[in-house]
Amino acid sequence: MNQALFLQILMAFASIMMLIPYYVAFRVGSRRYMANELSLSGNNRYAFMYYSGFFISLIWFVMPFLDQPRLALNLFSLFEAKEHVWGNIVYVVMLLGFIVYFMSVWGTKVMDYNLRATKDRFLHPSELVTCGPYAKVRNPMIMGDLFNHLSFVLLTGAVYTLYLYVIYIIIDIIIVEIENRYSVYVHFKKEYDEYAKHTPAYMNRELWLWTILYIAIIVYNFHL
What we know:
Blueprint: H1 3-17, H2 19-34, H3 45-50, H4 52-62, H5 85-118, H6 140-156, H7 159-163, H8 165-198, H9 205-222
Helix pairs in contact: 1-4, 2-8, 5-6
């Protein structure tokens, strides 16, 4: 195994390990909160453990920029390419547009709705949010995060990170399950069950179209 691939695997493993404090934050923190041993204040150890989710995301933002084989079209070869020059320009501009969309347009809207219920109280949201982007899918923040990270992977043409990307998908699904089991289900079980009957967890028609587009981009780039 070469050094570049080993480093990618090591960082992916480190991101998996960061799930442990995230799990503890919800599992133990929720139990103590329900026993009236913990307030909703952010000034406690479980709130700090909760932010381990940020470091998981950060690791996967760093990985595509590390040394590794690159797809034919990528940001780094933009000014070095001797062929596919215009294709590379269009490719980079398109991926940057996707990043802006999922970080600014999609991300900002989802964050606004999310913070209404969870600001300074991740263990006990003030309400079950079912409107706005949450009316389309039950986990729009996770989906925006996945597409945003994938956009960075494709923008940089990071082959090894792309191979390992399924790990990040699984990590995000585990995060959803932790939050649901120890927070959402505890406080909004009946409302959530009704909500789930009419709203898909992850994918609606719009996101399936995005998925098809990303798959087409990956296939096209591998065949160049």
